[in-house]
What does this fold into?
Amino acid sequence: MRIAFVGNGTLMADTYPVPCVGGSIQTWGLASELAKRGHDVYIIRRNRLNGKTCVDNVTIVSISFSSIDAWTPHFSYPYFLGTLFSQLYFSKKSINLIEHIRPDVICLIDRFSGFFPSYLNVAKVYIMHVAETFDFYKSHSIYANKLNSIMFFIKKFAENKVLSQVDKIVVLNTFIEKYLKKIGYENVYKIPNGIDIPHFSNTMDNNFVLYAGRFDWNKNVCNLVNVFAQIHKSYPNYRLYLVGAGPEEKKIKNLVSERGIQSRVKIFPWLPRNKLMELMSRCSVFVLPSLFEAANPVVVLEAMASAKPVIARANMGTVDIINHGVNGYLYNNDEELRKYLEKLLSDDNLRGKIGCNARRVVEREYAFSKIADKYEELFYNTLLK
It folds into this structure.
């Protein structure tokens, strides 16, 4: 089978064959696994140079062009607007490449980069990595970024067009699956994110609590800092490591200073993927305090694959993954976060038990080999319709 993945169309995301953001990591993992099975797999990406290369039997085809998003600061308004136009231009440019490749199936991973390919007369699967265009998400979106008071409707328009054109819609959690079916989509299939298991391990326990992700309102990092400040005197051997960047970085640093825990908290910028994996392999507990996770958070799966106990706020993205008290803990407020954090930090054996359970779950349900099985079946069913 010949399969073509259409990338995001941004320089930050389309860093194949060394992806560094969630959706791209998933695309590369799935593409690599399908290529191992003998499928003819292509990824169309944006790059600074045109050309074609082959890595791990995956053919990577590049589209190059200049745009404002290449030189404006990330997370700025010009960057977001530049990214929108870049993705649409990339989407249009990808048509000629797709027609030249002549795939049996196209996988679209973004509403904007997939906009024009969604109209092609070929089997199409849309993988909804970020479910942020539904009405229940609107208030969160606008609160997080005022630009979304406009962008929300643009995203919604583009996604509705893609959803109406594709043969199959893949979602990452049960909530979104039920939501789409409720509003009339029947071609919806739940396939979660995957993990490349051999890349993750538990090398040691270095006595630190870890968070990794964006520093923004939704990620709720300040609440984690406050809870750690409440308990840090009872656990003098433990530190808090925060890895990431974003609009709340200054606020987080100020809060650490206000709570007088500068010596116990270390803030890292974005780390290369291998460095983050190494840090994860040494943490004691991983915490994801996000108020809202609309997909299937890869970072939780990565921590679980590293045999680490995870504490995550209960939301649509985490409840499918974590079996409370068995392979991790789910919480609903700061008091519960404190309770479960103290429980794990006080008991080495419990951390080991929960971590081992987490690793087994990932091996059984989230290895890329398992995820590729589901996609192969979906592709064949799509072609045989």
